Structures are given as C-alpha cells and as structure tokens.
Amino acid sequence: MMPLENNITPDRKASKNLSKYLHKNMDRQAGVDHMSHRTKIVATVGPACDTYDKLLELVKAGVNVFRLNFSHGNHDDKSQIIEHIRNINKTEPYNIAILGDLQGPKLRVGEIENNALPIVPGDVLTFTNEKCIGNLEKIYVSYPNLAGDVKIGNTIMIDDGKLEVKVVNILKNGDVKVEVIIGGILSSKKGINLPDTKISLPALTTKDLEDLQFIIDQQLDWVALSFVRNVKDIVILRSKLDENKSKAKIIAKIEKPEAIANIRDIIIESDAIMIARGDLGVELPVEKVPLIQKDIIRKCLHRAKPVIVATQMMESMIDRVKPNRSETTDVANAVLEGADAVMLSGETASGNHPALVVETMRKIIMEVEKQYRYNREEDLKPQPHSPSFLSDAICYNACKMARDVNAEALIGMTQSGYTAFMLSSYRPKSPLYIFSKERTLINQLSLSWGVRAFYYAEEESVDHIIEDQINILKERGFVNTSDIVINTGSTPVQLHLPTNMIKVTKVD
C-alpha cells in the first residue's frame, strides 16, 4: 500500500507509481487546505472532543497539535485518545502532533463544604496540611511546605485571582492564618497562586513522574513542563527523557515570575516555549502580560524556538457561537507578533462548539496572514558568534533569495529539526516544505510556523534528492512547471553535515 499524503514520502523506486496513486486519492487533497494557515493551532482534548469522529472533525477544521492535559483524566482514557489520533494520522492526509502537558506543582485547596464557601473581606481563615472538608475554621491546601515558604504579608491568590488573601500568621504546627482581602465564593479544588513566594516544590512531582513515564511509553511528540522557574527544571526533565532514550521535545511553560527573570537561559535549553497567560496573569500584574508576551515571542524567534500563545484566547466560545471582538483581536495580535501557534483549552476540551471555535480561529489567522507579510529575515540576521553561524547564514539567505525570486517553494532537509526551526523562524513568504528521514520529526514539526513535513530517506546524491523532492511536490500540486524553487541541504550527503548549500531550480 502506498503511503498517505503527508505521512510518508516514497523512495525513488516507489515514486514511479506516485502519480497513479495520487489520482486514486484526490479526495485526500483536503490535506492541502488543512495547512493553508501558517500559524498553527493547538487544541486541548477533553470530554467535548475525545472520540475519533470529533477529533477528526477538529483536524479538518484546522488543528495541527492535540494537547493532552495531565491535570485531568486517567491514563486509560488518554491511551484511547492517543490511539484515535494515531489512526487519523495513518488513514488521513495529516501529521498531527500530540503534546503531553504535565500538571507540575499546581497548588489547590481541598474539598469545600457544600462546594461553596462564602468568604468576605476581614474573615480570617486557617490553611492546613491536614486533609479535611474545608469551612470557615480550616481549609486543606495541597502544599506540605506552605508554612515554610510563605512569609507574613505575602499575598495568596485563589481561583485564578478571583479571591485574594494575605498571610497574617504562621503557626508552629504548620498551619497558616490568612485574612481575606477580596472575597467571593470558594469552591472545591480551586488553584492557588503565590506571587510573592518562591516555592520549594520540585519541578517534577510524584504525579508528574508517573505521567512522564506514560508519555515516554506512548512516544508522544512533545512534553510540556508546567511552572518552570529556571533552567535546572528543564535539565532535570531532559535527563529523564535521555535516560529513557525518548525523542520527545520539551516545551517550557512560562507562568512564574522566576521564569521571566531566567527567560533567556530557559529558551536556550528548551525546544519550544508556551506563554501560559492564565497563571502568568495571576502571578504578575496583568498589565505586564502583553509586553511580556511580545518580548518572549521576539526572543524565541531570535533563537529559532517555536512559541505558543495560550490561555483564554476564545474563551467566550465555550458557550457562544461567536467570539468577543477582543478575543478576535487577541488571536490576530498573536499572529502579528509572530507566534508559531495559538492554543485552545476549555474551548475545545469542554466547550459546546469545539469544531466551530477551531474553524473560527483558523479564519482569523488566515485573514491576518493574507494581509500581513513578516519578512523576519530583515531583522533576524545570523549572528557571527553563534556556533551554527554558517548554517544560519545559509537558511537566512535561502529565505531572502526565495523572496527575491518569488519562489513557489522553499525546501529544507533536516535530521535534528534545526534547519526546519531556523527556516521557519525567518517567517519566509514562500511555502516551506521540510523533508526528513527521522519519522519522529514529521509530527513534531506540525508545531512550527508554516512547516509542512514529509518523510524521506533517500541518500543517493544531492542532485537526485533535489529532483525527487521537486517531483514529489509537483505530483501533489504544490509546485507547477516553470515555478522557481529554492532547496537547502548538505553535501556530501552521506556525512549528514549541517546545512551548507542552496540551489535554485526552475521546475521542468
């Protein structure tokens, strides 16, 4: 059986039958339309979209990456979802990546009496490590070292900042007395943020380690680490992946003040960044978040690291069929700032209209991309001090040349993914096609701006490889006779050197 649209690229012998195969599978050209938006869409899977048919509907609406949130659900449920996504990749013309999002040291209150405890300013509550049903006397908090880490006067935010209390006393038995500053209704299992406190919990909790092993065993494409504070958190996770010979790439979630202070090193050590604006907007003054988002995106582009903008992008569509105007602008601004991907959380996981929200987001993205040209190669010039300067210069000039000659395709070869990430970071005007013999990369690159990836394992010669790749794109309708294409690659082929060549071709 011949491979599907984007999943596997044929070798030279099989390519003789490619045209015949494609004519028999023209209905699968939906895969071409699926990639018409260059800014990718990440969607969280939940009860609203966890069947094969619903997941496929989301993919057809424009999803490139599915996020599995390990704060909710069990491994059996996630195994079924993973199987559905992999079946979609096998039988449909898509390369959908799977992202496993670890919960991290998320702090929560315990069960609350009647699941609704009214608290008003001036109330004094007691936070305790002893499990109990919360009331005005005592409330359980899932943080064993709360008394050791907080100080009198520290602010504690509850339920994404809807409620606020201040530490007024720390007792010898480990209980913490807090005074209510902003009141409301306290419900069970609501999250806690400590914006004034450096927490001592490890980056990977016991639950995270169990979930990480599941992610490794299931060979997921990306793993996101929550509440990253410094580069050591990434190093610890990387060591766990290396110990298990996992090829999963790491996404650092930026949602703590400490992460902002260490952002340069975190970007360098990570494979991608997620700007998790929910907790970030609670841990920091909300007015600081927009410029932080803009700055992180800029830094990621300079380091050729994919960056995701996440949280509350189209939250009103959990219930409604149209987004707020501010949400529309929020998505558009993320695209204009150069984000690789925008993410949906509750909108797809538990919302009433999962496919509609994806389709709406995709329309916003495409409208912006239709009018806006990035031309990032003008402000992202290769840096001579970079250890990859020569390859960076090849990628930079390939993008510039593609723009100058109005190329219909910019083609790259990669084994590590670096060339793909670098070409993508320049946000080229020409469509970007990446070929790799590393199967793991094919799905992973679904997160990167503008990348359409193909499996390709031939190593006969540079000339034959370039000819093959152009013929593959021509057969699939991506390029036509007389089009100009730009290829990057390395020679000699068998040495697998970093990218060191550019070739300009007029398609026969």
Quick overview of this protein structure:
By secondary structure, this protein is α/β, with parallel strands linked by helices.
Question: Biggest sheet, in brief?
Answer: 8 strands, parallel, barrel
Class of the largest domain, according to the CATH hierarchy? Answer: Alpha Beta
CATH superfamily of the largest domain: Phosphoenolpyruvate-binding domains
Number of helices: 18
Biggest sheet, spatial arrangement of strands: 1-2-3-13-14-15-16-17
Percent range of helical residues = 25-40%
Strand content: 15-25%
Verbal overview:
By secondary structure, the chain is of the alpha/beta class. The chain folds into three domains: 37-105 and 202-370, Phosphoenolpyruvate-binding domains (TIM Barrel), CATH 3.20.20.60; 107-193, Beta Barrel (M1 Pyruvate Kinase, Domain 3), CATH 2.40.33.10; 376-506, Pyruvate kinase, C-terminal domain (Pyruvate Kinase, Chain: A, domain 1), CATH 3.40.1380. The chain is 35% helix and 20% strand. The chain is built from 18 helices and 22 strands. The chain has helices spanning 18-23, 30-34, 52-61, 75-91, 146-149, 206-217, 231-243, 257-261, 263-269, 277-283, 289-302, 325-337, 346-349, 354-371, 389-404, 418-425, 439-444, 462-475; strands at residues 40-44, 65-69, 97-101, 107-108, 117-119, 124-128, 139-140, 155-158, 163-170, 176-182, 184-186, 191-193, 222-225, 249-254, 272-276, 307-310, 341-344, 409-413, 432-436, 451-455, 484-489, 501-506. Strands 1-2-3-13-14-15-16-17 form an eight-stranded parallel beta barrel, surrounded by seven helices. A seven-stranded mixed beta sheet has the order 4-12-8-9-10-6-7, with helices on one face. A hairpin with a 4-residue loop joins β8 and β9 (163-170). It is elongated, with a radius of gyration of 24 Å.
